[in-house]
């Protein structure tokens, strides 16, 4: 079948590229990913601690739990799953990494969609704050990224340039995470968070979010540049 053939060729190319990368490069990427995961854990704990330190609505708790788990935990790991130089991924074939990526993306999309819809259904002021606006942008980008992933997976059947679709899917996925993490930063910067946990905690949460976002996007950014040069 054409799809399988294209799928295997791309997998072989990725495995070959993995073997050609220097040990120093691999070590640096692993250090970045380790630091990133620590920051992701800190961001998650900060968000969860905040919603339990005072009495708040059930819809807000559901929103925070679902969106933080979906974006900060699952979707970031979906990005790491395609990195052939990251920890466990070095021991897994490309086909299996891609399956893990798809599974995480689907689960993450379901969680953030439910979390976003719950909040939008209970709050009428989504467009009154930067956090709300960026949250809606992240939600829409999430849906578009999922659609783009489906189209990208069936590029051979649709007779569409594979490289272009992959680059577009990567950009849209990165935009999704940027919107989600920026929305989270503005949540940490909110008056409510600063009053409850203090300015230092808010600034620390923002710093962790920025480092986690940058660390998550290092690998796809390098892959994006590599694909552009290889396509010439």
Explain the overall architecture:
This protein is mainly alpha-helical and 232 residues long. The protein has one domain: Four Helix Bundle (Hemerythrin (Met), subunit A) (Up-down Bundle). 85% of the residues lie in helices and 0% in strands. It is built from 9 helices and no strands. It is globular and about 50 Å long. The N terminus is likely disordered.
> How would a textbook summarize the main sheet?
none
Radius of gyration: 19 Å
Q: What share of residues is helical?
A: over 70%
Mean pLDDT over the full residue set: 84
CATH topology: Four Helix Bundle (Hemerythrin (Met), subunit A)
Main location: membrane
Protein name: ascorbate ferrireductase (transmembrane)
Pfam families: Cytochrom_B561 (PF03188)
Subcellular location: Membrane
Topology:
Blueprint: H1 2-20, H2 23-52, H3 58-81, H4 94-122, H5 130-153, H6 155-158, H7 162-188, H8 191-197, H9 199-231
Helix pairs in contact: 2-3, 2-9, 3-4, 3-9, 4-5, 5-7, 7-9, 8-9
Task: List key phrases describing it.
Four Helix Bundle (Hemerythrin (Met), subunit A); mainly alpha; 9 helices; 232 residues; 0% strand
């Amino acid at each position: 079948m054409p799809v399988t053939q294209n799928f295997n060729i791309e997998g072989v190319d990725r495995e070959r590229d993995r073997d050609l990368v220097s040990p120093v490069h691999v070590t640096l990427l692993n250090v970045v990913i380790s630091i990133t995961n620590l920051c992701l854990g800190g961001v998650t704990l900060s968000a969860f601690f905040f919603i339990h330190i005072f009495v708040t609505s059930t819809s807000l708790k559901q929103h925070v739990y679902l969106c933080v788990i979906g974006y900060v935990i699952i979707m970031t790991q979906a990005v790491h799953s395609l990195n052939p130089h990251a920890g466990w991924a070095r021991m897994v074939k490309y086909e299996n990494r891609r399956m893990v990526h798809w599974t995480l993306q689907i689960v993450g999309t379901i969680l953030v969609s439910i979390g976003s819809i719950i909040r939008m259904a209970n709050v009428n002021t989504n467009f009154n704050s930067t956090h709300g606006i960026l949250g809606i942008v992240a939600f829409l980008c999430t849906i578009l990224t999922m659609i783009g992933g489906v189209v990208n997976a069936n590029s051979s059947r649709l007779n569409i340039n594979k490289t272009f679709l992959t680059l577009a899917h990567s950009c849209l996925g990165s935009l999704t995470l940027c919107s989600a993490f920026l929305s989270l930063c503005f949540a940490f910067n909110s008056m409510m968070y600063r009053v409850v946990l203090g300015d230092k905690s808010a600034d620390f949460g923002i710093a962790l979010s920025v480092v986690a976002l940058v660390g998550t996007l290092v690998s796809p950014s390098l892959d994006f540049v590599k694909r552009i040069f290889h396509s010439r």
